[in-house]
Design brief:
This protein has a single domain, classed as UDP-N-acetylmuramoyl-L-alanine:D-glutamate ligase (3-Layer(aba) Sandwich), CATH 3.40.1190.20. Helix content is 34%, strand content 25%. It contains eleven helices and 14 strands. The longest helix has 15 residues. It is globular. It starts with a strand and ends in a 10-residue tail after the last helix.
Length: 342
């Protein structure tokens, strides 16, 4: 059954070098529009939900192009305000083999971070008929001004009996671990379902998985069960989901995840992915988990769906996961051959 899911966060223009060109050699860029929460919204809209994006873009043609891009993929943009001077920019250089991908942010003084406090969103209207709120750690990292706004949104969501999920989404280029710990620790009491990757819990909360070497792609399952238990003890989340990426190279990753629910760990199948574009992979996982929980999947089904959905996202250019439910279910049933469909 379709649910209204509120996605609160910044919208950006993504400028990507063509193919595998480096920044220093590129003479043109491919243009996409993105944002951690909107990336999740694209998936949810594809799967039949009302993805209600809450954000702010400039009142000029670039801002409108961003809104049009979201509308193209079925998202509800009624709560995307207009104002400010500029849309933040994300530059991406695709890595290959042993050369890492690179991201450069140009987000200071964006429309989303500079606003009139008296003209914030009317949260009672935003959450009317809503079932879920999703945000990520990139939101409060952008500006101290956004932290009380986010807290008001969470309070309004709780008042409306709206479930809240958060993807920790730590970005060291946006803030320090100390800043993240202080801010996110204060927000976690509002959160029902936590999502993070294999290193977020360590970088934000200082909770490290034992016998794990992320840079070498060596992840210890028991260590992550312990991470989930510690997060549960500290914040009492309903569920904790941890994506487990084994980076064999920039081109080949192993991809799986853990869902800790009802005091039990549930590990997904592991996929070996030949990567086309990994940006947005974590957001597609968050969307998969939100969809599964909204549809009352059991914990094992939920984590399998989220991982299969995000596995397919890694094969799609741009930030949005444009995989339909039939494609995800086919992969869940074991059809990962990639044979042409006629």
């Amino acid at each position: 059954m379709s649910k209204t899911i509120v996605l609160f966060g910044e919208l950006l223009m993504r400028l990507n070098t063509v193919g595998f060109e480096r920044f220093v050699q590129s003479r043109k860029f491919n243009v996409y529009y993105t944002g951690a929460e909107a990336n999740a919204g694209a998936s949810l809209a594809q799967w039949g939900h009302n993805a209600r994006v809450v954000s702010r873009v400039p009142a000029h043609e670039i801002g409108q192009a961003c809104v049009n891009f979201l509308r193209q993929y079925g998202m509800d943009t009624a709560f995307v305000q207009r104002g400010g001077e500029r849309l933040g920019i994300l530059y991406v250089e695709n890595g290959a083999s042993q050369r890492n991908s690179k991201v450069i942010y140009d987000r200071k003084h964006s429309a989303f971070t500079e606003f009139d406090d008296e003209k914030n969103w009317n949260w009672d209207d935003v959450f009317k008929g809503a079932h879920w709120l999703h945000f990520s750690g990139t939101l409060p990292a952008l500006s101290p001004r956004l932290i009380p706004v986010l807290e008001r949104a969470c309070q309004a969501a709780k008042k409306s009996n709206v479930t809240i999920s958060c993807d920790l989404n730590f970005r060291k280029k946006l803030w320090s671990s100390e800043q993240a710990n202080q801010t996110m620790s204060a927000l976690m009491p509002y959160v029902d379902n936590l999502i993070c990757n294999e290193e977020d819990a360590e970088m934000v909360f200082g909770i490290k998985a034992a016998d794990t070497h992320i840079s070498q792609g060596k992840l210890n399952r028991d260590g992550y069960i312990d991470v989930a238990k510690q997060l549960k003890e500290r914040f009492n989340f309903k569920t904790i989901a941890i994506t487990l990426r084994e980076s064999l190279s920039a081109s080949v990753n192993n991809w799986s995840a853990l869902l800790y629910a009802n005091g039990q760990p549930h590990f997904s199948k592991k996929y070996s992915i030949q990567i086309v574009d990994r940006v947005g992979g974590g957001d597609s996982f968050a969307a998969g988990l939100i969809h599964a929980l909204c549809e009352n999947y059991d914990p094992q089904q939920a984590i399998e769906f989220a991982v299969a959905a995000s596995c397919l996202k890694h094969t799609i250019e741009g930030d949005f996961n444009l995989s339909c439910l039939d494609e995800i279910n086919a992969l869940l049933q074991g059809d990962g051959s990639g044979r042409i469909q006629r």
